[in-house]
């Protein structure tokens, strides 16, 4: 039985490695101890005539360096523009605005984009975002690193 347990452990570690290895740039940054991983990346399915969409994900910075996410982009076949947005209370209403300075991700911290909070906004959708389809979002950081993240479209929970 302990042997089975161990192989299950190895298997799940392998699955996690395979899931995140493509999204990490630890391998390009050999002096860094930890790594940067992007997790839980998804976009909310839209209705048929929607012109905007939202993408959510988290970026875990376990490297020794502070990071700054400067901007995001998608292929023009998906949307004409992608922006970093934050939400704040204005006149007792939740308003969103573009975070033109980007977002800091200090070493050891996680930047979360989630419904109701920071989000990535797709403007000028070419077609609706349909459940089950995928597209690629590029994250551009201050150190000129770009991470390309597969985004899966899901129904909102
Ligand atoms: Cu927005």
Structure description:
The chain is mainly β and 157 residues long. The chain has one domain: PCu(A)C copper chaperone (Immunoglobulin-like, Sandwich), CATH 2.60.40.1890. It has one helix at residues 2-21, and strands spanning 36-44, 52-61, 67-74, 79-90, 93-98, 103-105, 110-112, 119-125, 134-141, 146-154. Strands 1, 2, 3, 4, 5, 6, 7, 8, 9 and 10 form a ten-stranded mixed β-sheet that branches. It starts with a helix and ends with a strand. 19% of the residues are buried. The model is unreliable at 10-32 (pLDDT under 50). Bound molecules: copper (II) ion.
Write out the CATH superfamily name: PCu(A)C copper chaperone
Query: What integer value in Å does the Rg equal?
Result: 17 Å
Summarize model confidence as the mean pLDDT.
Answer: 85
* Architecture per CATH nomenclature, i.e. the level-2 architecture: Sandwich
Spell out the helices and strands N to C.
HEEEEEEEEEE
Number of strands: 10
Reported by name, the CATH topology is Immunoglobulin-like
What class, by secondary structure content?
mainly beta
- Strand proportion, as a percent range, falls in over 45%
Helix amount, in percent?
Answer: 10-25%
Ligand names: copper (II) ion
> What would CATH call the class?
Mainly Beta
Shape from CA axes? Answer: globular
Domains (count): 1
**Poorly predicted tracts of residues:** 10-32
Biggest beta sheet attributes: 10 strands, mixed
Q: Determine the number of helices (DSSP H or I, runs of at least 4 residues).
A: 1
Termini, distance in Å? 38 Å
InterPro entries: LpqE-like (IPR007410), Lxx211020-like (IPR058248), PCuAC_sf (IPR036182)
Keywords: Signal
Organism: Glaciecola nitratireducens (strain JCM 12485 / KCTC 12276 / FR1064)
Pfam family, one: PCuAC
């Amino acid at each position: 039985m302990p042997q089975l347990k161990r192989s299950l452990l190895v298997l799940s570690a392998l699955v996690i490695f395979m899931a995140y290895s493509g999204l990490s740039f630890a391998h390009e940054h050999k002096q860094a101890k930890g790594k940067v991983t992007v997790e839980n990346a998804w976009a909310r399915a839209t209705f048929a005539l929607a012109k905007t969409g939202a993408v959510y994900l988290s970026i875990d910075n376990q490297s020794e360096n502070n990071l700054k996410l400067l901007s995001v982009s998608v292929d023009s076949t998906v949307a004409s523009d992608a922006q970093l947005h934050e939400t704040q209370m204005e006149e007792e209403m939740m308003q969103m605005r573009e975070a033109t300075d980007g977002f800091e991700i200090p070493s050891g911290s996680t930047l979360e984009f989630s419904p109701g909070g920071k989000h990535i906004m797709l403007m000028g959708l070419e077609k609706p975002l349909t459940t089950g389809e995928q597209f690629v979002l590029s994250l551009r950081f201050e150190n000129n690193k770009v991470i390309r993240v597969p985004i899966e479209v899901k129904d909102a929970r």
